[in-house]
Amino acid sequence: MDQIKQARKIKDYFLFGEWYHVYWIHSSFVHGMTLAIKKEVGKGLSQLIFEQDEHILRCYMSRSEWDNLGQSYLTTILKDPKRLETLLNRIRKAADGLITFNHQARSLRVDSLKKEKIITLLQEYHKFHHSTWSLGQVTNVLEMENFFLTDYLRSYLKKKGLDAKRLLEVFQVLTLPRELSMAQKEEIDLLALAKYNDKKGLVAHYEKYKWLAFGWIGPDLDYDFFAGHFQGLVGNEVAIKKLEKSFAKQDKLIETKNKYIKQLDIAPEYQKLFRLLEEVLFIKAHRMDALYMSYSAVWPILRKVAKDNHLSMKQLYALSLPELIKSLREDKFNLTKINRSLKYSIQYYDGQVNKLLIGEQARNIVAVAKQCLVVEKFKDFFQGECAWPGKVKARVKVINQASEMGKLEKGEVLVSNITDPSLLSAMKKASAFITNSGGLTCHAAITARELKTPCVVGTKIATKALKDGDMVEIDASLGTVKIIK
To answer: What is the rounded distance in angstroms from the CA atom of residue 38 to the CA atom of residue 46?
Structure first.
């Protein structure tokens, strides 16, 4: 069947996400959203379009199909929670394997690597990278651009007679991960170094955590970043006590969870579901830590490949890992295809297979999807979902890329289409976050929970309704944003 006619079968395309500097080298994302979901959930999407528009990646799919997948998977999990538990264990195992590979890759003398060794390394990397990426997409049907398990558990708490404020408090505690992310561990470790003025340990700390803001394509944080934070903490009793108090709360988290379970007489089957949602939120952070760490760890290898084959890093990123391995093995890089793919291309899933389409053919299929998109009206008041509660009144700065972070002043609100680790420095200065896309498992929500920063996700229109300097009132508990004239 003609691909345009096939694409037109969907009448309710929506923009699932828009990411900056995500390229086909990360294309296990595509596999996960199509074939992995279909295998694990039992059914999948009939159409999916990933659009590479130079440095921006967009994803379009059917709203009703995505919702149906989420509802179907929720029904499966309510009948057999073990299904989700098993999946989460598989994702954790894959992410742990990727982290182990990362440590090994960092110890290599890359400049002396021969081609065959590089091919072997990239094959091993692809095995862990692919599993970590693709399996991780399955939980997205529950908690990405939708809130199926969240809403189910909130409904259960509401039946317990809790008012809105108390319900939010209990829900946050019962689902807050008891395990720490890498960013939280870095903060604790730096605190320990500063408390005892351990300057010698700072170099090892830098080597361990320099990848934290690498994101998709880097760069790593430099030594001065950590040294500056270290110096700011040394002798600063107020900062040290504040951090110690924050992490003392983390130590009491399990105790508080158990207290709420007992007070509210939460049934065992619901205890299990709350624990699973907690694990979903942690595993998302854990696997993304593993992936971002890996992009930093393999960057020197990819840089050598690019240099040896007279490619830019951007050209290299236009290849999927299997394509890169094949091109290396054959000593043949199709520069015409690479350049055209990088400028404009799509990965089109027709319900059976993923196909790379380039140029006009790709644009025609995307045009079909764009005709279905709902035009969101700009409003002085709009709403999303609460990722972390709190009220804030401040001016906003719209930041989608790391190059824009310099304009954010401490205490301002960071507004973004969707965040990633490259924005971490700005996020630590912000008084709140607002995003167009995402759910409780998106990067902004994860970071908000770690920093205890008010956050509203999934507003759809934040970056269009707001401009730099606008004053807003945010009640993240309610998920509301009001523009003050």
So the answer is: 10
